[in-house]
Fold this sequence. Notes:
The structure is a single chain. By secondary structure, this protein is of the alpha+beta class. It has helices at residues 12-16, 24-31, 100-104, 188-191, 200-208, 221-226, 228-231, 253-256, 260-272, 290-312, 349-352; strands at residues 49-51, 64-69, 72-78, 91-95, 109-114, 120-125, 131-136, 142-148, 154-159, 192-193, 236-238, 278-282, 319-323, 343-347. The strands form 3 sheets. The chain has a 6-stranded antiparallel sheet, with no helix packed on it. The longest helix is centred in the last third of the chain and has 23 residues, at 290-312. The model is unreliable at 81-91 (pLDDT under 50).
Amino acid sequence: MPPTRPPEPVATDLQTAPVPKGQVDAVDAQVQRLPAPVEVRPVTAIQGERIERRPDFALPPQAKVVERVGDRDILSIVGAGIAGAAAGAAASYFIRSDDNDRLSRGSRDVTYERLPRGLSRETIIRENGVRVVTIENEYGDVIQRSRIAPDGRETVLFYDPYAEDDSRPDYYTDAGADLPPLRLEIPEDRYIVDVAQPDEELYYDTLVAPPVETVERIYSVDEVRRSERIRDKVRRIDLATINFAFGSDQIAQDQVANLQALADAVKRVIDENPAEVFLLEGHTDAVGSNVANLALSDRRAAAVASALTQYFEIPAENIVTQGYGEEDLKVDTQGPNAENRRVTLRRITALVKPVETARSQRP
């Protein structure tokens, strides 16, 4: 990986200026300070060998499966300082989110290929002929995902240019561990949006705003999932209008309508730039075990992502999900608390691909 320069706060005037319609990627490009140009290869560039089913991914180094919950593994690495760790615990826990089922729901066909160097490629074919193509490494981490239209136009959603770099830190090293503390130069309520009533315009303005700190390199989606410090580079929306019942991942019917304003804001952003990527984070209160809460929070994030697709037609591939259990309590209490049972949304596009080179293009 090429050497990077330390990140800096993004100029306040750039952070607060209105983003012209259709210029979200242009503003993000001003924030990315990549050490070298990155050429994005087409997701179908490498010849693959057809296989009958999705490959069995290897367990990451030094990891063990604590529990298997549905199609998700909860992993433990003793002494590791990773996202999802219980404060003061001897072992750290992390749930490996898997968007595969959500993305393939209602598809016409799904095919798999084996690629060189332990990689694999999954192609989901939708009824309308759109293909969602994902490349994963031997651990099941996503290297690249693209959407290919029936006319062959490829839209790159995320791309990890350093996936095969041997100098990359260990698998569970926090990618933001060596970064200096974040310096916030905008008001807290503009950085973390938390409102009692849905507000489409506020949601939209928050989502299109650039990161609050320069992006010194491209991160993989899984690095972003695992590093709170990297996620903190972008603003977030705490969906105070969606709270879950104790122990439940079901969205109450009377709260589904509260997603309308958020869905409309997200759809506006995607309509302007179909290559945008959003991270939905699930959270719980502190009641229950760390393992159970990680699984529950992951299901909550997936439930909201599925609702945005099913009811509001947000493309499933533009959203990734991750559960964090009780790691980030909104209200500092060990008792049951509805405000802690929530989801959070961030636009992470500028973190997971070079925005200048990953635009839609014909092959």
